[in-house]
Design a protein that fits this description.
Length: 378
């Protein structure tokens, strides 16, 4: 079997990492011309770590990451609304929830696969399916034929739009700006969220570094010019007392914008083309599950592909992959929506009501679904 994997991100590299141990031949293409990782940090729950364990890189991951012991929700003045202690997760699962630089995790996966296995600076121009083969034309004009094409090319996937259709990605009209800020703005081993109407700020501890994530409603179609970005952020986040402190310490270009969007598809297989990770089911990062889900996809798809033979067809394998992923992706999506529900609120009245209720939300409202994801078989 000959496979084309489009996109050397978290999901594509995980798939390639497992295929290394098989006789399946693959080409792995990446549109960036060099190793370029988005510079934010990723919260990885133990389901993602379990995949890294299977790949033999969990120890290196533990060393590089920062355990998250607490999750705090505060208002813009810093008043504590709710503090979740995650120690039960640690006693039950060992390593439970780790914050790691995306660049570091990405590099670990590249090292595992081998940089020389990645064909950088290549994009796809056309994908045509005929009689169980997929003919791909690359940006260079070269054509190749494959038994399977895997779209692991992220939330704005070109494989998805070329094969499954346009307009599947839905923008939420909330923009995020992330920036590395001074360590004095964080609480140790904690994710802290500061929430006000139309304003969300998250602080993530990464041992010697701190990532700030700022989010506010902005129409996706409105371009975010780098010039005067700081001043615009100060106005947009005027309800946040702490943020003024770090905004002034940074430059306009230190804040990197990205627009939230999501992908919801019934079928992630079409003929001999299959989607993995954000390309298949991208959701906003509120529950910190996108990267772990992409790694799970890579693991499950590799397992199915390795079973293909005389009595187990590729068609059956792809159907099994799609069916196996449905339930877990649904749980992760529900969790994401639940957490977005209290984080991204525009109305002042609704914000007041949620804030007043927040100390009384049963712990199970949030944590039981995580337990389900972590306990159940992947
Ligand atoms: C600010 C922010 C914070 C986040 N925080 C978290 C978090 O805390 N925890 C978490 O789990 N998730 C988080 N996420 C989401 C997480 O980054 C994604 O869910 C995860 O990276 C998905 O992996 P993927 O492999 O599907 O896609 P990606 O990792 O995005 O990889 C896609 C790859 O495909 C390449 N590519 C794109 N198009 C093409 C093409 N046409 N041809 C070839 N290559 C192509 C890209 O260059 C990229 O290398 C966050 C996202 C953002 C924006």
């Amino acid at each position: 079997m000959r496979i084309l994997v489009v996109g050397a991100g978290i999901g594509g590299l995980t798939l390639a990492g497992f295929l290394k141990e098989s006789s399946i031949e693959y080409d792995l293409i990446e549109k960036s011309s060099t190793i370029k990782s988005q510079g934010y940090s990723l919260c990885i729950w133990n389901n993602g770590r379990r995949i890294l364990e299977k790949l033999g890189i969990a120890e290196a991951f533990d060393k590089a990451g920062c355990p998250v012991n607490y999750y705090c929700v505060r208002d813009g003045n810093g008043n504590l609304l709710r503090k979740y202690n995650l120690s039960n997760f640690y006693s039950e699962y060992g390593m439970a929830h780790t914050n790691i630089s995306r660049t570091v995790l990405h590099t670990m996966l590249i090292d595992l696969v081998g940089e020389e296995k990645i064909l950088f600076g290549i994009n796809i121009k056309q994908i045509i399916q005929r009689s169980n083969k997929v003919k791909v034309t690359f940006s260079s004009g070269e054509e190749r034929e494959y038994d399977l094409v895997v779209g692991s090319d992220g939330i704005h996937s070109e494989v998805r739009s070329k094969v499954f259709g346009q307009g599947i990605e839905k923008f939420d009209d909330w923009r995020v700006w992330y920036a590395w800020v001074d360590n004095s703005f964080k609480d140790r081993n904690t994710i802290t969220e500061y929430i006000e109407p139309n304003e969300f700020v998250g602080m993530f501890d990464l041992k010697d570094k701190t990532l700030a994530i700022l989010s506010a409603p902005v129409k996706h179609s409105i371009w975010d010019d780098v010039e005067h970005r700081k001043n615009r952020l100060k106005v947009a986040f005027k309800g946040q007392v702490r943020i003024g402190g770090f905004i002034d310490m940074l430059e306009d270009r230190d804040f990197i914008p990205s627009d939230f969007s999501h992908i919801k598809m019934k079928n992630i297989v079409k003929g001999n083309v299959v989607l993995v990770g954000d390309a298949a089911h991208g959701f906003e990062p509120h529950a910190g599950l996108g990267a772990s889900m992409a790694m799970e996809d890579g693991y499950v798809l590799a397992g199915e592909l390795m079973k293909v033979g005389d009595i187990y067809s590729l068609k059956v394998a792809l159907r099994a992959y799609q069916d196996k992923r449905k339930k877990r992706v649904r749980i992760a999506r529900n969790l994401t929506n639940r957490m977005r529900g209290w984080a991204f609120v525009k109305s002042r009245i609704l914000r007041k009501i949620i804030n007043a209720w927040m100390p009384f939300f049963p712990v199970s409202f949030l944590l039981n679904k995580y337990h389900r994801l972590l306990r159940e078989e992947i």
